[in-house]
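Moderator note: this is an archived Q&A kept for reference. The question asked for a predicted structure of one protein chain; the sequence and the answer are reproduced below.
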Amino acid sequence: MTLFSPEILLMLSYNCYYATPSRVYHFSKPIDYILQKKLQKQPLCHFNWVEEEKRMSISPGYAEVVSLQQTNAGSWMKYLMYKSPATYRHCVRVALLAEIIAPYLNLSEQDNASFIRGCFLHDVGKVRVPNDILHKKEHLSEWEWNILRKHPVYGEDILKNHSFFDANILDLVRHHHERYDGEGYPAGMYGKSIPLFARACSVIDAFDSMLSVRPYRKPFTKEQAYQELSRNRNTQFDGKLVDMLISISTEEMSLYFSYIYSKEK
């Protein structure tokens, strides 16, 4: 069963309006309290959670992801949705890709759910990265890159501090920017020593990023994105996982492609 219906994807895409606070806040109070104080004067997102609950029956997988929004860790994803809607929608699309490729990974039901959840949460650490860096149109300076590269560690820290202890998800969040050749971050892990979930997330994260509009470049075509993945087999990415993604039929990927190629990304 498909994780997201077209209707829900459209709602996720079009009902969120941009808000771009540009500072890094050091939160000393619960995130829901900060959201209430920061946003009560200006409703920044018309995201109807009551209506969402009514629509959960469309997909158990989607219900699994939305249920995270009711947790402390999920509150940070709510904040990400307000802070950087483009980043939030990227996380939604990566979760959609995760459900599409999960059957090819031969996961148990529990691991399947963890993989989808982890892919949804993979960029939660970007709530601690200034929007001036996240949305910068020019190339980042070395200092700005160093800040951005901390988001996997920030994400793991946020989840641990909110009693989120699924080891597979924590590993995915921390290590989804490791490279197969050992040149990634934050730990410089390589090959099969990188957890499977992180290796798989790395491929679909990069794939969605290439197909998405970025402030500094135009999106790739899907053919260009597949070529780039292939070019980086066994260097940036696990070659077997690249081949797996490329082998998935256009029909199976149709919902994802219909979303990524919609008018607004």
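Archived answer notes: The chain has one domain: 6-260.
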